[in-house]
Design goal:
Layout: H1 2-9, H2 16-52, E1 56-57, H3 73-95, H4 105-124, H5 130-148, H6 152-174, E2 179-180, H7 192-224
Antiparallel strand pairs: 1-2
Keywords: Cholesterol metabolism, Endoplasmic reticulum, Lipid metabolism, Lipid-binding, Membrane, Steroid metabolism, Sterol metabolism, Transmembrane, Transmembrane helix
InterPro entries: INSIG_fam (IPR025929)
Transmembrane segments: 28-49, 69-88, 131-148, 155-174, 186-206
Length: 225
């Protein structure tokens, strides 16, 4: 009788499947939040460079932050960064091709530094015309993919992200949300897809690294159990 009372007083433990699902869901949320914050920070810094060089112009009534950026730009970039960062490792698992090329944080930080440098070059370096600048940034962006990614899925996702992001930007500029100075590719600059491509590769690398860290933590917990 005493044994029954003792057994009933002990809370039942969750099964391994439920525990695993809960852990993965929490880790997914944490990764999404981290990617969102990284995207917001990069948007504030990089958009500041573009505005200082008068590459992008916002109407005076939407300038509403200490970084002289429209309030909606950082949240939109943060959301896109979270989606991209979570999508890359998901596609890798779906294709059965885990990305193992240069999987360490030092490589990821170098990738971020190169991406910031490419964006900085688009705003600071003066070329004779936009075509030369576009070709240079295209070469640098492909070089970033080759140096830090080299996966077919990464390249394909980068191209898709560049296409969709450029299309959305064209629509925003067309509707007067903001504008580019000296547009040469419909309503935007011709080098903009290169920036989006490099940004997709960069956030994908960060997302993959965070996912790999999650797998290590889960593996260690299962080994301890």
């Amino acid at each position: 009788m005493a044994e029954r009372e003792t057994a009933s007083s002990v809370p039942p433990k969750c099964g391994p499947y439920i525990s695993s699902v809960t852990s993965r869901s929490m880790n997914l949320v944490i990764r999404g939040v981290v990617l969102f914050l990284i995207g917001v920070f990069l948007a504030l810094v990089l958009n500041l460079l573009q505005i200082q060089r008068n590459v992008t112009l916002f109407p005076p009534d939407v300038i509403a932050s200490i970084f002289s950026s429209a309030w909606w730009v950082p949240p939109c970039c943060g959301t896109a960064s979270a989606v991209i960062g979570l999508l890359y490792p998901c596609i890798d698992r779906h294709l059965g091709e885990p990305h193992k090329f240069k999987r360490e944080w030092s490589s990821v930080m170098r990738c971020v530094a190169v991406f910031v440098g490419i964006n900085h070059a688009s705003a600071k370096v003066d070329f004779d015309n936009n075509i030369q600048l576009s070709l240079t940034l295209a070469a640098l962006s492909i070089g970033l993919w080759w140096t830090f990614d080299r996966s077919r899925s990464g390249f394909g996702l980068g191209v898709g992200i560049a296409f969709l992001a450029t299309l959305v930007t064209q629509l925003l500029v067309y509707n007067g949300v903001y504008q580019y100075t000296s547009p040469d590719f419909l309503y935007v600059r011709s080098w903009l897809p290169c920036i989006f491509f490099a940004g997709g590769i960069t956030m994908g690398n960060i997302g993959r690294q965070l996912a790999m860290y999650e797998c290590k933590v889960i593996a260690e917990k299962s080994h301890q159990e």
